[in-house]
Design a protein that fits this description.
Chain lengths: 297, 615
């Protein structure tokens, strides 16, 4: 099963639209999912009627699914009321919900500081890192958290990352050079300018937000996607690799599922939590590809 | 059962480097990690890698700085291995393409760091660990080394001889988080633990939520002594609301600490008249808390770290990541205002006792990186010494496990003729909480339970024991949630076993930990699912936190002196006559016992004589 992107950012909690829910596999499942959504909406209203947890409580709506646990095999949303504290992030709220109300609530998280890339989520209709998203910065009273769209859901907010990892590995994501230094203590030189040129591309934390936001990657499963192409850019533009290796890299990213699939929609750039100019990097590789092709005319 | 020559547990910097080295030495290697490698907490390291690379610098000076920084509790053969081999490993990283910051002439850049006599901290912006982790993982991908990601190693398969020194490790038991299956991994030549930190025993820590001391706890219960556990580093500059780290690089580049009176207290109140903000971390952390305790803190909680005077260009060039962290996690613009900072748990100097090759006293079992204690850091780690430790000892252990080393270690492991028995200091019982016998087998979780049925038999028995435990945890109907137990441990450790330590508080902590252990006997996993059951994972981790928290506190109570990061209210001096020795704790099948071993101050061609440590 998979989720599809949500078109409506301003949806309120009491009226979940069917197309905001994960896409079920059959019409029967779709009906059941809709039913679950309706039941969920009713449950939320009931939850809203409960005594307040203070003026600052927030409502957290979380996608739930477990392939084997009764009552969770059909996707649904659960609602939690969480006391708001200053500086609270979406990840903090999820942890609070799990540790206080439901220890089976499942999501990946580790570093809490936007470097491990574990908690890319679909928050109020946009790919973001849970730990990097201040609740105070979100619009509306309800925080809705879903797994990353376009990826198979393993359970609750956990998606299967294997396809993402496969695409990353498809671009030979490791340094290769025409000439390795001879001595054990011999470093390769790199100008500060060249280091600056690749700097942003080296910031990628493999969170998968970009791939999830990309319509092309959603439709064409084999498209390398922005993260993998950015990884290729990181090496292709590194002057330490040398000209021969650069040609090899251009061949890799020029293949059928490479840079030319990109339609320059900038969705990846917009959601990247590390502000990597992904679309620009893809465009620059397209220009490099044209240049290197001209050489052989 | 799966079989490999070498199994590496954990895939942060130390694990990745170990796997690469073992494979280069011809071993068939697998890595087993509860995260995906790039999620490991090495990625959060900011400052840099100390390496004597440049003219005018010398690895002997680096060794001297490190011994002094350790307050003479480091073991010289390990310290010298670190400092001698760090340049080679650092350049190796550069040759693997790591994106180091560069000087105008194209060389890798270095900057000053606390406690160093030369600006030898090699860095990549303020995100050195991120670049190091990814560069190493790239090499693992390149080499096709098998990685079991999101497989949680929960038990070591160690044979059951009476003395730990006679035992052998034959593999590990791992739980496939995605599928909920338990499987045995047999290691023909060696198991290398590289499981990282244990910061989750505290509630204000720079460590990740996954840093639960798993390797330390597993090795400890399998009989391996754990060393100097009381030596916990509190980093002086963490953000007050989250514990997120603000790199020492800020002070290295010239950042200044101010109290609420606007005084540059490191100098004005005489904490470090020479080095000021760049004194060793333990010194700066105590100074900050002292300011707060004397009413000169801001909001009674923190001090200010100001870097505005460095100018936007320099900040963007060398510390850009710090701007993002301060903005995202504290709502402060470091270009416009000073950043609030306070000490937070950061690093465990102690850990699994190893020699300078990463080998423990149990045959075939190694430990490297933060979970290990060689000891490189002694009573206080210098900033910039953790990342080279990962590379140097990862590589050494990988080669050793693969059978590529026949040099004898100078540091001994396990009990030897220089060891001395310790007295019990705890007011309460330690170790395994009393249990009804039927449940004991399920929750006891000792390591050495196997009967001699051949190497594979040891692994098979460990698998069975683990299946019993997981089944028990999943089937138990009612009880307490692990989160409550974890919170109890974190609360008492933060309150009682922090920067400033006193006897009564340490004893209180041991009492609280005992209570938490009893609570844990009633722990239950509510989530019945076999699919990605994090409830179960966190429940198992919490058991590890209990063992580790207790060990830290016992060591802190036993060591009645002030050395490095370990400050004792009643004992305000370093006692070299009595305490130039490591605290050792052995599990003894559930009844922990303290003992001691002398620190090794004899280096290759000189002895590091303890001197007064001033900055």
């Amino acid at each position: 099963m998979s989720t599809q992107p949500d078109q409506t950012d301003d949806e309120t909690e009491s009226t979940p639209e069917p197309d905001a829910e994960p896409e079920p596999e059959s019409p029967g499942e779709r009906r059941r999912a809709e039913k679950a959504a309706r039941a969920e909406a009713a449950e939320e209203e009931a939850a809203d009627a409960e005594p307040d947890l203070g003026d600052d409580a927030i409502t957290l709506k979380v996608f739930r699914y477990d392939p084997e646990v009764e009552g969770k095999t059909e996707p649904r949303f659960d609602t939690f009321r969480i006391p708001f504290t200053k500086g609270m992030t979406v990840l903090d709220a999820l942890i609070e919900a799990r540790d206080t109300y439901d220890s089976s609530l499942t999501f990946r998280h580790s570093c809490r500081q936007a470097v491990c890339g574990s908690d890319a989520l679909f928050i109020n209709g946009r790919q973001r890192l849970g730990c990097q998203t201040q609740i105070a910065d979100l619009d509306g009273d309800v925080v809705r958290v879903e797994p990353l769209p376009h990826q198979d859901v393993v359970k609750d907010l956990v998606v299967d990352m294997e396809h993402f990892y496969d695409q990353m590995e498809a671009v030979e994501p490791y340094f290769q050079t025409d000439e390795t230094p001879d001595g054990e203590l011999e470093e390769q030189f790199q100008t500060p300018e060249n280091r600056e040129e690749i700097k942003m591309s080296t910031r990628c934390i493999w969170c998968g937000a970009c791939m999830s936001s990309c319509n092309i990657a959603a439709d064409e499963n084999e498209y390398l996607g922005p993260a993998a192409i950015n990884k290729a850019y990181r090496f292709a533009m590194d002057e330490r690799e040398g000209e021969n290796m650069k040609e090899h890299r251009m061949e890799l990213i020029e293949q059928e599922n490479g840079v030319w699939r990109c339609q320059t929609q900038f969705s990846c750039t917009n959601v990247c939590p590390k502000d990597i100019p992904l679309t620009e990097h893809i465009q620059e590789l397209k220009r490099e590809a044209v240049k290197s092709n001209l050489k052989f005319w | 059962m799966r079989e490999y020559d070498v199994i590496v547990v954990g895939a942060g910097g130390a694990g990745l480097r170990a796997a690469i080295a073992a494979q280069e030495a011809g071993a068939d290697v697998a890595m087993v990690t509860k995260l995906h490698p790039v999620r490991s907490h090495t990625g959060a390291a900011e400052g840099g890698i100390n390496a004597a690379l440049r003219e005018g610098d010398d690895w002997h000076d680096h060794a001297y700085d490190t011994m002094k920084g350790s307050d003479y509790l480091g073991d010289a053969p390990a310290v010298e291995a670190l400092t001698r081999e760090s340049p080679k490993e650092t350049i190796q990283l550069e040759n693997w393409g790591m994106a180091f910051s560069r000087d105008e002439d194209g060389q890798v850049s270095q900057r000053p760091f606390g406690g160093l006599s030369f600006p030898r901290t090699t860095y990549a912006g303020a995100e050195t660990g991120h670049h190091m982790l990814h560069t190493m993982y790239e090499q693992v991908v390149k080499r096709g080394i098998e990685v079991y990601d999101e497989w949680y190693v929960t038990r070591l398969a160690v044979s059951d001889e009476d003395e730990p020194e006679e035992r052998d490790c034959h593999g590990v038991v791992a739980y496939d988080i995605k599928r909920g299956e338990i499987e045995g991994f047999r290691a023909r030549d060696g198991v290398i633990l590289a499981t990282g930190g244990l910061g989750q025993v505290y509630d204000h820590t720079t460590n990740a939520i996954a840093n639960t001391g798993d390797g330390v706890a597993m090795a400890y219960r399998a009989g391996v002594p754990i060393e100097d556990m009381e030596m916990i580093q509190f980093h002086p500059t963490t953000l007050p609301s989250t514990g997120v780290l603000i790199s020492e690089g800020v002070r290295g580049e010239g950042g200044i600490l101010y109290n609420s009176e606007g005084e540059r207290f490191m100098f004005e109140h005489g904490y470090a008249n020479n080095d000021g903000e760049l004194a060793s971390r333990d010194v700066v952390s105590r100074a900050e808390l002292n300011e707060v305790n004397n009413g000169r803190g801001i909001e009674d909680e923190y001090v200010h770290l100001d870097m505005r005077h460095l100018g936007e260009d320099r900040i963007l060039d060398r510390l850009e990541n710090i701007l993002h962290l301060a903005e995202d996690f504290e709502g402060v613009d470091g270009l416009e205002e000073p950043m609030p900072v306070k000490p937070g748990q950061h690093y465990a100097m102690g850990g699994i006792e190893t020699d300078e090759w990463g080998a423990t006293c149990v045959g075939g079992l190694y430990a490297v990186g933060e979970c290990a204690c060689a000891s490189v850091h002694g009573a206080n780690r210098l900033g910039g010494n953790a990342l080279p430790e990962l590379a140097v000892f990862g590589a050494r252990a990988g080669r050793h496990a693969a059978g590529d080393v026949d040099e004898e270690a100078k540091i001994t492991t396990g009990w030897d003729e220089d060891s001395e028995e310790g007295e019990n200091v705890s007011p309460v019982a330690l170790g395994e909480a009393g249990l009804p016998s039927a449940e004991k087998g399920a929750l006891a979780d000792g390591g050495a339970t196997a009967e001699s049925a051949g190497d594979a038999g040891v692994v098979e028995e460990a698998v069975q024991a683990e299946r019993t435990r997981v089944h028990y945890l999943l089937e138990k109907e009612e009880g307490v949630n692990h989160a409550e137990v974890r919170e109890d441990v974190q609360r008492t450790m933060t309150e009682n076993v922090n920067v400033f330590r006193e006897e009564s508080a340490l004893k209180d902590a041991l009492g609280d930990i005992r209570e938490a252990r009893k609570e844990y006997q009633h722990v239950t996993v509510e989530d019945p699912s076999r699919t990605y059951n994090t409830d179960l994972i966190h429940t198992i981790e919490t058991r590890n936190l209990l063992d580790v928290a207790e060990a830290i506190t016992v060591g802190a109570l036993a060591r009645d002196e002030f050395r490095g990061a370990h400050w004792r209210k009643e004992h305000q001096e370093r006692k070299d006559d009595e305490w130039l020795k490591h605290t050792m704790l052995s599990w003894n099948d559930g009844s922990p016992g303290l003992w001691y071993k002398p620190a090794v101050l004899e280096g290759e061609d000189k002895t590091y004589e303890p001197k007064e440590r001033s900055y």
